[in-house]
Amino acid sequence: MQPGLVEEGLNLFDELLRDGSIQVREEHYTCLVDLCGRAGRLKEAFGILEKLATNPSASKWGALLAGFIDHHNMDTGKLAAEKLLKEGPDDAGRYSLLWNFFARSGNWREAAKMRIKMKEKGFKKQPGCSWIEVGNMVHVFVVGDKSHCQSQLIYSALYDLHKQMKKIGYIPSNDLNVHEDFSITGILTWDIFRLI
């Protein structure tokens, strides 16, 4: 995110507060926390929450936690994770965000608990999606989807990449204490998808 856009967003928010023509609502503060968090301005994002007269809502804690995850600031993110765990809505988004935080923190036991809770409650995470443009044509990739016209070629290339990684010594951690849904091969495959 470009620093100038963050400054513009902060200035617009200050203008809204001064102007008074619209009532600033919770959603505005959540957007501001998200804006600062995505830009890596985590102290500012946290400061916004501290200045609020009321207790910050789960959406604000979620926006802050996403910033901590994006910028690999896991130690400070613990407070946001705890707040979201206690006060967050009972939905797939909450558990998915917490799973992501715990997994990136290396806390596989807690990450597995989040997946188990999602499964018990029947929640399904929306699949991840990426796209690239090649020669004025957009190619969309959805995790686990094999409907792309060149999916065989794509998965073949991923398989070859997987083999090459193993050949040069890539070994995923075997000391992960995770639920049976998480196989080492699945984690390695996830690592490959993150490389794309």
TrEMBL record:
GO biological process: one example: RNA modification
Protein name: Putative DYW domain-containing protein
Keyword Repeat: yes
GO molecular function, one term: RNA binding
Keyword check for Cell inner membrane: no
Swiss-Prot/TrEMBL keywords: Repeat
PPR repeat start-end pairs: 91-125
